[in-house]
Amino acid sequence: MKFLFVVVGAGVGAPSRFLLDQTLRPILRYPIGITLINVVGSFILGLSIGSSNNVGALVGIGFAGAFTTWSTFILDVYLAYELKKYKSAAANLILSLALGISAAWIGIHLVQ
């Protein structure tokens, strides 16, 4: 049964990420869509920590797992580096990690 909750959550999370990123990417020069997605996903994962197995599977593993994207984040950093946009690459890396960790920490502490 837990598997089905993961599948349903992922079925909503991945398309949500795609739509949000596709909406924001043409408007902004900086890959803010992926940063925003990963920060929000980290917050949602933090909120789901300690919830029931089914809620954790649906929201934490399924939705947040499919909504966030490590691969696109790393690709954005790599492409900025390759284009010699070192400040942009460093800012993306530092900002994403700092905000993501902070968002997860806030989410965890809100439910405690």
Task: Give structural notes.
- This protein is mostly helical.
- It has one domain.
- The chain is 84% helix and 0% strand.
- It has five helices and no strands.
- The chain has helices at residues 2-24, 32-48, 53-67, 70-82, 86-111.
- 36% of the residues are buried.
- The mean pLDDT is 94.
Secondary structure layout:
Blueprint: H1 2-24, H2 32-48, H3 53-67, H4 70-82, H5 86-111
The mean pLDDT is: 94
Low-confidence stretches: none
* Shape by Cα distribution: globular
Helix-strand pattern, N to C? HHHHH
How many helical stretches?
5
From the alpha-carbon coordinates, what is the Rg to the nearest angstrom?
15 Å
How far from one another are the termini? 27 Å
Number of domains: 1
Strand content: under 5%
Helix % is: over 70%
Number of strands: 0
Secondary-structure-based class equals mainly alpha
Question: Which structural traits does this protein have?
Answer:
single chain; 112 residues; mainly alpha
Brief digest:
The chain has helices spanning 2-24, 32-48, 53-67, 70-82, 86-111. It has 112 residues and is mainly alpha-helical.
